[in-house]
Amino acid sequence: MPLTLTDHDRALLSGEHGPAARMAMSIIVRMAEVFGAERLLNIQGAHIDSALYMGDATLEFAERLASLGARVVVPTSLNVSGVDERGWREWAVPPDWAEKARRQMAAYQGMGCAPTWTCTPYQTGFKPRPGQQIAWGESNAIAFANSVIGARTERYPDLLDICAAITGRVPAVGLHLKENRAATLLLRLVDVPHELQADDSFYPVLGHLMGKLAGEGKPAVLGLQAAPGEDQLKTLCAAAASSGSVGLFHLVGITPEAPTLQAAFQGREPEQTIDVTLDMLRAARRELTSAAGQALDMVALGCPHFSLAEFRRLAPLLQGRRRHPQVRFLVTTNRAMAARAEQAGLLEPLRRFGGQVTLDTCILTTPMLPPEVKVLMTHSAKYAYYAPGLLSTQVVFGELEDCVRSAVEGRVMRDESLWGT
Amino acid sequence: MGNVIRGRPLVAGEAQGQALVSSEPLSFWGGYDQRTGEIIDRRHPLSGERAAGKVLAVPFTRGSSTTTAVLLEAVRLGTAPAAILTTGPDSFLALASIVADELYGTPFPVIALQPEAFAALHSGDWLQLREDGTIQVERVRQTTKGEVSRE
Question: Does B38 touch chain A (CB under 8 A)?
Answer without folding.
Answer: no
